[in-house]
Amino acid sequence: MSMQTFKEWFFTTDHKRIGIMYLIGSMTAFVVAGMMALLIRLEQSQLGPTITDNPNEYNQWLYFHGAAMVLAFLIPGLTGFFANYFLPLMIGAQDVAFPRINAFSIWLFYGAIILALLSFVIPDPPDIMWTGYPPYSITTVGNTAYYVFTLHLLGFSSVLGAVNFLVTVIYMRAPGMGWNQLNIFTWTTVAAFVLQLVFIPVLASAVTMLLFDKYLGTSFFNPEAGGDVLLYQNLFWFYSHPAVYVIFLPAVGILFEIFTTMCKNQVFNYKACVYGGIWGIVGISGFVWVHHLYVSGMPDWLRIGQMVTTLLISVPVGLMVMSMWGTLYKAAITFNTGMLYAISCLFLVLSGGLTGIPLALTAITVHLSETSFVHAHFHFIMAMFSAFAMFGGIYYWFPKMFGRYADGKWATTGFILNIVGVHVTFIPLFIIGAQGMPRRYWDYQMFPQFEPYHQVATLGAFMVAAGMSVTILNWIVCAFKGKVAPENPWKSCSLEWTHAPNCPQAGNFPNPPTVTADWSPYGYADREANMKATTDPGFPGAAKPAE
Question: Would you say residue 545 has pLDDT above 60?
């Protein structure tokens, strides 16, 4: 890379380049956090110490795996990479509203990534997991301030991104584009940014009070001085459960873009999906956090109320899932790698969603809480569901980003290893979790009967590692040597495919598009009429103005 190219990327304010930088940063966090997952599984593959005899070292693996996967991979990947690269293209904008703030947010994110990676070399690394629960986080010799500062950087980056993209969607849509003409991905991303704006300050306040307690002598969470450790848990989960939907919503939006294009169907029940599903989740998400605290001690009336709201949020989620299945109904489906990942997500959300129901019920979750059943459920419904949606989205939009296909035998091989490996890993954990295997235990000599299950799960984890390695290497190779793709290879009706060339340059569109009231990003029923409802005479593949 020449110095000029380096400067162009380092100082860029182009939303597409910033999106690629988010992709690189989030995938770096994903790879390192995945290595931590392999260390965790290796340690648990046998009774007694396996690769470390230091439980604190095991805690450090847990800390980095959880924090990096959620805060440095999933959230930045979905609301950083996908939103940055594709949202302005979908709404016909030439860039985001505040390009320099956008550039500042990516460097805050990279600062947090660098700090997180340095936690492996500092003398007193954080060992408090991604939750940072007191009193341990206040009494440990681990560097709690390091954890807090990393979260602050990620939080500032997310808040700046949220403000930027909300303003972009409100004020920079293509002339004539109404709210009911937005892509589902745009709606889900807007909803995720609203959640970030509302709830991130709560997490920032909680970890700041943690910092003050440990280093300045305050007593927010010290019961001996009138504090309450449960205050932190309430504040933490008041953000962190809505954060599940910050991840879940954009992932679902990606699935809709893939399904509609590969099925050549409109979104089934569009308005119910948007106003009942997406905004229903936003409305209820702030009333369900207490189910994380069912066993921490609370009055029964509060448990019952939170059980009802937790079950209630399955209604808007159900509306969105019904829309996805309805979109697939009677479709002539084009199968490719992106579609394979999207279809696999339907099974992941089914298994993850159904296992969430017993965790919402107070009488059952009292027995399942803090067992492997919980983290198997969590990985199905959020971690792997969202990661597979991201992978499907990367394959779907790969021709747009690089002008080349990434599909092929290596892509299919990676998918098979990933989907099989996920089930081999987590189904045994569901079984032993229901039988009482605790979460986060360094060793389990009191449960020797669980060792064969852990060994099977470890085998599955290495299958996933092989699949992820093949997938990432395939992307890198295809970005430079893949088969050249034509403009709009999937025959989509969405603006990023119909009016922007592959590998779009600064400004995105030769001439910014204008849409009429008849246009829809999913107008496949009468594709010719739908294409006439947009104009962009500067792009060779654009529709001609209606006469």
Answer: no
**CA angle at residue 451 from 435 to 64, to 5 degrees?**
90
464: left (phi > 0), else alpha (psi -120 to 50), else beta? alpha
Kindly state the tokens that stand for 411: 């892509």
The amino acid that residue 274 corresponds to is V
Across residues 211-238, what is the average pLDDT?
A: 91
Mind listing the pLDDT tens digit for each residue in 142-175? 899 999 999 999 999 999 999 999 999 999 999 9
Q: What is the pLDDT of residue 9?
A: 81
Give which of 106, 88, 105 is closest to 97, Cα–Cα: 88
Up-side HSE of residue 410: CA atoms within 13 Å toward CB? 16
Whether the link from the prior residue into 135 is cis, omega within 30° of 0, is yes
Query: % helix / strand / coil in the chain, to the nearest 5?
Result: 70, 0, 30
Query: Residue 241 in 3-state DSSP?
Result: helix
Which residue shows structure tokens 């439980």?
Answer: 55
Minimal CA–CA distance to 27: which of 491, 474, 509, 486?
474
Taking each helix axis from N to C terminus, what angle separates 3-10 and 15-44, rounded to the nearest 10 degrees?
A: 90
How many angstroms separate the CA atoms of 135 and 91, rounded?
A: 47
